[in-house]
Amino acid sequence: MRGLPFFLAVLVLLKIEIIVGVWRYNNILEDENLFTLHNAVFLKYDGSDFVEWEYPECCNVNNKSSPNAIMKCTSPGFQMVKPLVSSPEEEEARYLFISDSFFSFIWYAVVPIDRGSTETSAKKVRMWIIDPEQAYPAEINNTALVPSTQSRYITKHFYNNGQYPVIKLKSKQTHLGHFQKDGYWEAVIPGDERFNDFHIYGQPISFQHRFVIDGQHTFYWPEPAEPNGEREVSLRLAPGSPLSLVWGTCELYRGLLLSDTGALITKNAFLTSEELMVDPGTLPVPPEGYFTVDQAALLEDGIIFRIDDALYWRDNQDRVLTEHPQLPTSGVMGIYQRTCCASNYPVQISHFNVGCPPNRHIRVARPWGMPCEMHSLTNYTILRSVLRDPQQDDIVVYYDWEKFGCLLKTHYKNQFLPSIDLYDGDSYVRNVDANFIVWDRFGRKDYSFNATMRQVACLRESQTWISMLTGGKSLEEAWGPENYRTCFKVSPGKLGNLDQPYEIMNRSSKNFLTFSQVDSATYVFNVKILDPNYSFCDLHAVFAVQTYGITIPKYQHLTTYVAIVFTLFSLCILGYSYCRYVTIFRNLLATKRHKYE
Length: 597
Description:
The chain is mainly beta. The protein has 5 domains: 18-99, Immunoglobulin-like; 106-218, Immunoglobulin-like; 233-354; 360-548, no CATH class; 557-596. 12% of the residues lie in helices and 33% in strands. It has 6 helices and 41 strands. The protein has a 5-stranded mixed beta sheet. It is elongated, with a radius of gyration of 32 Å. Residues 1-20, 225-229, 342-348 and 350-355 have low confidence and may be disordered.
């Protein structure tokens, strides 16, 4: 059951007689990069107790009394949104970060089906540029084979200005797109794998002062039809039920269509499809000869089915429908599959979050244009005065190039925001948009953060390293997803000191690392994902930064030596004066005593 923990959280609605509302927000393409001033935010509330939306003055909502509303903001920053409800218990307020990014166009990609191709034939990828706010429904749903009129207009403007896409495969191969007269670029990629996972990036060229966001795309090629085994049986909805369509959360081109006559599954947004059947394994086949399904959730390596009030698992490899010890076999009223790959809202009641995909890890990406030096350093010294824990002597750190990687070189006045990527083995998955923390693994403390808790709109004092390092815990153990507490939620009691540095970072925030302004220094940072809802893996990494630009004055040491010599000379004079005074005083006493005698 490898796929159960992959990317998705499945909300199991147990038989508890309470009424709850769930609310969420997203944008038209459910892409975290599109929460900008140029793009609309869709607000949705599920529940019968909705009254209206509460939102800041710098944002506009088309119908605040509708549970399904559209919001656009005119100012960047964290914007508080909250549904007002009639029930006694208030809904949680969320803080959406709306950026003023100029990156708001998207690369669209499609691989048209070539009926004459074989399994290993090269595949042609069509690419064009879309504006999510003006794209046609087929482009939004990833079913378009050619650009819409508006997208063709935008694409040709970019082309005339020198734009062209580059496809980068997970093998590191690159393929250039060549412009076609129908208003799209076309590139040829190998077709000798079951699927292609590639990254599309363009040139730093703008149109209407807006740029194109790099994109990640995955395409599965149709597999040769396999004869169904004698034991495989159909899956159907109850007779008379309406069609039910389920899409993959992280792979939107994968879908499952359930009907009362059978089930169809697709790996390319229904350009092609095949009937989905299961091997019943040890489960008894119902008398009607098929399993009646109530709901399904599509995961990366398999599917969860709700049959009656129990959950069953079908693995993509062995195709066997089976019970699983981590899934309940009774008392389940429904399953809820979240609609974003990285959740934008907390899920309620209970989760099935099991295990971690093998080889999943994070890496800190090298910022564009920043030098990254290898084997330029053997060791370095950390002054005891800048250590978090006091030491009697300075410490010498031997730099482990294999473990720490290359040194990111930056000017000491520059602010730095680590960009973190998620990987499965050597395959890039996506940018990490979750909260994270950093700390110097050797204990130096001569760095800080440019934003305060008040500046990032905390509603109470945020967690800090000082507050978390109690009870004798180490830096590695003191703070993590298991004890993370957001500061964007009101709690009883004092607000605390909101003028402290805010020590939690996020790729979309304005909180950056700042470095020592006294000495150029080398920092080896640990980074850890803090958000407990992001992943069930222990995601951490190491990166190193070396600052430069602080120069020691030519005569700085001479000044120190002169000061020491002057101090010693002054002490000598004082000592001599003291001895001379004592001698004179004793002589006077002796003279007086002799006079009186």
